Backbone:
């Protein structure tokens, strides 16, 4: 019963939020299963495209990352970098990619995309550079407004810090705070209002099953 109710809730929410996002210039898809998600990604990104990912739990746990690394695409993999300098070069090369794949931290009911970043490479690429941006975002990330998005981020940021084995106060007590740690990941709060200047450059796959945090 629980799964059926959540499936109903997220499908209903998808029908509401999809036209809102489309009016703002985003290209929007809905996926009801992992297989449907992978099929949609494959239909969007042509084989042999240069692709990279900003690092996302939603992308990795959905098997999308495996698809990107399958050999069908020219995947720029910063995790293979042997030095910080090499990693930075791969991150800069991402700005020339055909598709940049990542996730949002929240989506507001009026169609704003919310991001919180540590280094800024993800939000920078979403805003400018790659020919296309593909966002994988589950519908549990939909919030009422920007303030509710901030509250959501305060809730999940300690878990993301713990996942990344960072030395921040929140990994000790599980509570977000305005820390001064050099490991802090809450550095760049970005709101993307629309994609109207570059229609359909930002593509969003909304999943009716939960992914990421």
Residues:
């Amino acid at each position: 019963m629980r799964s059926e109710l959540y499936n109903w809730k997220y499908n209903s929410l998808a029908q509401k939020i999809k036209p809102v996002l489309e009016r703002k210039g985003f290209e929007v898809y809905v996926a009801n299963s992992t297989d449907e998600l992978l099929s949609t990604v494959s239909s969007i990104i042509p084989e042999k495209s240069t692709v990279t990912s900003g690092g996302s739990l939603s992308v990795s746990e959905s098997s999308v990352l495996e698809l990107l690394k399958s050999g069908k695409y020219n995947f720029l993999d910063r995790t293979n970098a042997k030095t910080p300098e090499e990693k930075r070069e791969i991150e800069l090369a991402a700005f020339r990619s055909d598709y940049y794949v990542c996730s949002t931290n929240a989506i507001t009911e009026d169609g704003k995309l919310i991001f919180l970043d540590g280094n800024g490479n993800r939000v920078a690429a979403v805003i400018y550079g790659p020919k296309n941006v593909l966002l994988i975002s589950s519908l549990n990330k939909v919030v009422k407004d920007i303030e509710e998005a901030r509250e959501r981020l305060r809730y999940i940021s300690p878990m993301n810090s713990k996942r990344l084995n960072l030395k921040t106060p929140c990994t000790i007590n599980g509570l977000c705070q305005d820390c001064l740690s050099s490991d802090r990941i809450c550095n760049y709060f970005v709101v993307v209002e629309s994609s109207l200047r570059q229609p359909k450059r930002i593509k969003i796959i909304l999943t009716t099953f939960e992914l990421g945090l």
